[in-house]
Design brief:
alpha/beta, UDP-N-acetylmuramoyl-L-alanine:D-glutamate ligase, nine-stranded mixed beta sheet, about 35% helix, Carbohydrate kinase PfkB domain-containing protein, phosphotransferase activity, alcohol group as acceptor, heptose 7-phosphate kinase activity, heptose-1-phosphate adenylyltransferase activity
């Protein structure tokens, strides 16, 4: 990948990607805890600072923009404080936001970190029905965006925006326009989809998509999982993220390659899947074959897990990593 990194990043910078999915704001409270509360047996956190970044589908968009491509994001953002902050972050990265209909609050995940360790997470969100995006509205809003994009990413965090009807409509519009479509699924929602170009489940999600239960002390049934997922969903490419075991690549239901992890030191896996998805789609839309795209994505994700908190990878970081020392 190092030999082709420069030309690939140049091609990526000319890509235009549309991301549709569950948008959220990630909030981090950084501090220290040296005493126990007299009110309850819990630590007292002395707060040092607060930071905010894009999360969920917005983090996918952030990774795309950080790698130099143009990105449009379709997702629900309210007019509340979290929504205003998220809009500012997206604007700073030149990400165009297409607000979708909805009546809920902006999804906000607050993580409390003490001495670089996560103490707890606080979630603020509305019921899934508040974020649903009617297919008719989607067609009117997205038809031109899909036609202008080089690829479409569906980022599902099981919060409600991606429904069977929306996925079917986006797939229909994309096929008519000859566009590449990728999905990062959350199988617990049993979302219906078929004949997409790429899906990127993790190990646990791959079991769910295949209709299997993990067996303790048994090896990962890679061949059966790939065969079952292809039979059920007809996906062209399947890339399963296996954590410390790297990436498993499958085309047409058959395993083509396993790529070892590129992570050097793992601090936080938050957002690594978003980085892998964004990098894969960018590389594939720029003309890379699946194996080369997977190496690129693996390297990008390896950088991200070395950071604490949700954070994107940048083209500069990739170039630095590829520069001989």
């Amino acid at each position: 990948m190092i030999k082709t990194l420069g030309p690939l990043l140049k091609k990526i910078a000319a890509r235009r990607i549309l991301v549709i999915g569950d948008v959220m704001l990630d909030h981090y409270i950084w501090g220290d805890a040296t005493r126990i509360s007299p009110e309850a047996p819990v630590p007292v956190v002395d707060i040092a600072r607060d930071t905010w970044t894009a999360g969920g589908a917005a983090n996918v968009a952030l990774n795309i923009a950080s790698l130099g491509a143009t990105c449009t994001l379709a997702g629900f953002v309210s007019d509340d404080d979290a929504g205003q902050r998220l809009r500012q972050i997206l604007g700073e990265h030149r990400i165009t936001l297409l607000p979708t209909p909805g009546s809920g609050s902006t999804i906000l995940k607050t993580r409390v970190l003490v001495q670089r360790q996560q103490l707890c997470r606080l979630d603020r969100e509305s019921p899934p029905a508040a974020y649903q995006f009617p297919a008719k509205t989607a067609e009117a809003l997205l038809r031109e965006e899909i036609a202008a994009a080089d690829a479409i990413i569906l980022s599902d965090y099981a919060k409600g925006i991606l429904t069977d009807a929306l996925v079917a409509k986006v797939s229909q519009l994309a096929r008519a326009a000859g566009k590449f479509v990728a999905l990062d699924p959350k199988p617990k929602r049993r979302l219906k989809f078929r004949d997409l170009d790429l899906i990127t489940p993790n190990r646990r999600e791959s079991y769910e998509l295949a209709g299997l239960e993990p067996a303790p002390h048994e090896p990962y049934p890679a061949e059966e999982i790939c065969r079952r997922i292809h039979r059920a969903h007809g996906t062209r490419h399947l890339v399963i993220t296996l954590g410390e075991d790297g990436l498993l690549l499958s085309t047409g239901g058959k395993i083509t390659r396993t790529i070892p992890t590129a992570a050097r030191e793992v601090f936080d896996v938050s957002g690594a899947g978003d980085t892998a998805l964004a990098s894969l789609v960018l590389a594939l839309s720029a003309g890379a074959v699946l194996e080369d795209a997977a190496h690129f994505a693996n390297t990008a994700a390896g950088i991200v897990v070395g950071k604490l908190g949700t954070a994107p990878v940048t083209a500069a970081e990739l170039r630095t990593l590829a520069t001989p020392r």
